[in-house]
What does this fold into?
Amino acid sequence: MLNRYRTMFPQVHQVAYLDTAAEGLPFAESETALAAYYADKSVGSPGRRQLHCEEERTRSAVGRLLGTDSQNIALVSSASEGLNVLANSIDWKPEDEVVISDLEFPSGVLAWLRLRERGVKVRVLSSEDGRISLESFQRAIGEHTRVACVSHVSYKTGTRIPFLRELSRAAHAVGALMVVDATQSLGRLPVAVDGIDFLVASSYKWLLGAHGLSVAYLSPSARDRLVPGALGWYSIADVFTPDRFERYALKPGAGWLMVGMPAFPSIYVLRRSVEFLLEVGVDRIDTELRSVVTALRQGIEELGFSLLTPTDPVFASGIVSFAHPDSERIAAALEQRDVIVWAGDGRVRASVHLYNDRSDVDRYLRALAAYRQEAQMQDTDLAGPASEEYLA
It folds into this structure.
């Protein structure tokens, strides 16, 4: 049972922490990892050998998590950076199209939206009841489509896309790239890169890592279709060749995506957290938490809140959201009861990871019920405007 891992996350004994979709909790070895980095850094330049060794070990662990060779993995500063490097590396033509949906996080929108001045069109598919159908994507993909970009799990609704392979076939049929943001799934749900050309995932959420680092996957076939839109000394196989002012050779695989010295402190943490997740088993995490997520979704529905998350289990992930115009007030009231969730953008979002169990969900639902009862007793008007202090 996953319960035995709760002791590795002291915070969960103080509060019902249901906000991994915003910030994953670090486990005890994160502090050990940062101390190891400090020790290696303290040696000065001779310590670089260990820094780069740690980088390779981390890429290998991420490769195992995704079922691919470590050569196809890069460690960039953020998912946003990865998406922008990709967008800059495509030879765009006027009338080219990018297909996305309204379930995308801003990173998966802005990287493409800024290309409109170059004549690139962004087609945004509208969701219905928190989901987009495969047929909608298939109808939208046409001869001008260059990229189909989706989040494996929506940050907004928690909707999991269950048809990535089918969607990739539709994209590849017209020569388009299949791009996936796995920030809200990698480390929590099984993620396979079959049929995916490019994938990014932030490390500080479900991967239990630190800030300043993101996983990027680049398929061998896609690499041959790109012309690097950003390069730095770290992108190059050997920067000190005699003819370095005339030509260069890129690092193999996805290595050229890393343009400068990477975030080694976060790399030290990520290696240990990914190896921990591999030891536990992401399949196991997903399987054991399904009943917890179901109880969470059903409990919110029974309380009468308006679910954004689809009820069909095929779309289930670790996230359950409901719409409410006074979401931030609700979250503040819950925090006073030691229940931590995310709120803003007119919704309240709870997320469940391996350090959560049914007791956290029950505590959350009791706190929600208590808030609603108090609001009704006070005859509070809950229809105030929603604001966005931050995005998660």
